[in-house]
Design a protein that fits this description.
Largest sheet of chain A: 5 strands, parallel
CATH architecture of the largest domain in chain A: 3-Layer(aba) Sandwich
CATH class of the largest domain in chain B: Alpha Beta
Number of domains of chain A: 2
CATH superfamily of the largest domain in chain A: Aspartate/ornithine carbamoyltransferase
CATH superfamily of the largest domain in chain B: Aspartate carbamoyltransferase regulatory subunit, N-terminal domain
Oligomer: heterodimer
Distance between the termini of chain B: 36 Å
Strand order of the largest sheet of chain A: 7-6-5-8-9
Structural class of chain A: alpha/beta
Bound molecules: adenosine-5'-triphosphate, magnesium ion, zinc ion
Number of strands of chain A: 9
Number of domains of chain B: 2
CATH topology of the largest domain in chain A: Rossmann fold
Order of helices and strands of chain A: HHEHEHEHEHEHEHEEHHEH
Radius of gyration of chain A: 19 Å
Chain lengths: 309, 153
Amino acid sequence: MNEFYQKDIISIKDYNKEQLEKIFTATDKLIQLDPSTRREISKGKTMAYLFYEPSTRTRLSFDSAMASIGGNSLGISDISSSSTQKGESLADTVKIMSIYSDALVLRHPLDGSSRFAAEISSKPVINAGSGTEEHPTQAIQDLYTIRKEKKKIDGLKIGIVGDLKYGRTVYSLLYGLGNYDVDVHLISPESLKIRSDSVYEIKKRLSFTESTNIEEHIDDLDVLYVTRIQKERFPDEEEYLKVKGSYVVGLDLLQKMKDTAIILHPLPRLDEISPDIDGTKNAKYFEQAEYGKYTRAALLGLTLNENGF
Amino acid sequence: MEQSELLVRRIKEGTVIDHIDEGKGLQVLNALRIDGRDGSLITIALNVPSGKFKKKDIIKVENKFLKDDDTNKLAVIASKATINIIKDYKLVEKRRVSLPNEIDRIFRCSNPDCITNSNEHIESVMDVIDKEGRVLKCRYCSRVLDVNKLKYN
Ligand SMILES: Nc1ncnc2c1ncn2[C@@H]1O[C@H](COP(=O)(O)OP(=O)(O)OP(=O)(O)O)[C@@H](O)[C@H]1O
Ligand SMILES: [Mg+2]
Ligand SMILES: [Zn+2]
């Protein structure tokens, strides 16, 4: 019996190091399998997705993950065309969707929405982004990428740059990194520092420095994690324009970095990483996207099969 | 019992909430919805000398006995308060308030984007993560809440 069977995936904070390592090992194994064996893992199972916020990337990543293990997916990705637009509650929608499926993938703008959905759903709920703090499968994907590309996570120096205030992937990643012995440097404009109401929780898990200057620790970093400035979360355009483009990673910056450093990005990117970087051996964000598919496939496989795979 | 605490006539049946932190008395009244509308006798004493250098607030309410929700609110607002139950003019029971592990319904999460503040049919659940420091955390959005800014449902 695998411990992830029928379990909700709500918050990265619910996972300890040992559990994360189990997920990573399962992902390694899944990658090794040949495609036809892989397609047996969730044959005949259905994943339903329910996206209250636009996201093609995460949704497609789940879709392709489910397809790769032989399952089906169905759902609502454009909530404006659905009955919720007519005022149906999240609770009712979740109840119905859980009847149609074996697992439910939810993205919702409100904080705590997936925990609520999990209480209502008769099937496991996988949080694909709720509110501003949680995106656990992204964090698992990011940690897996670091582990795979650097062969370890403990002992690394990790810089996280960009919008740290509104970027939920950052919070999930920080909580996840809290399980490891890492040095974290947070780099952002003053107005986009991590939120003070989350600092208490993060400080319990790891120590970090904050700076507005990306050059400060650049020659020391093993991993540079770049995030997009989220335009949609800004109260007004003017504020957005002020900070947009304050940190662009280009070849000049790359030259100051360790030869072995890797650059990650949850994607989609705008202009925060210059396309010149794409061809370098340091750019790992497309690999990261691919690992996202495999980590999600592994998570789905573990959630849907009593004895794992 | 100090004479200065009996300025007003004694109550026959009811509750004396004593040792409320100085300045929190009115907040307690508000939270416990003690407004005197039912006509019963209420005595409020603010800034009562207590010990050598300290002051406290006291609330005495006739015909009211606190329910669990009230006690929990009290524990959050004034952790040093004592609840004294009066029956037939006599003090029959004295309790210190203490925080439970979990507080349901009574407080509103201070995060406006929390699902518990939406139109969904859902009630707040807060975990008390540090009883000494009175630190509460919303079970849904995980926000750590400032007890001094909590609003009641
Ligand atoms: N019948 C009554 N009517 C009104 N107030 C009362 C009555 N009996 C007791 N009290 C009040 O209840 C509180 C507790 O009474 P008690 O006799 O236990 O005082 P105490 O020994 O000072 O208690 P503590 O150690 O909690 O300070 C006091 O504030 C007292 O004035
Ligand atoms: Mg006394
Ligand atoms: Zn909340």
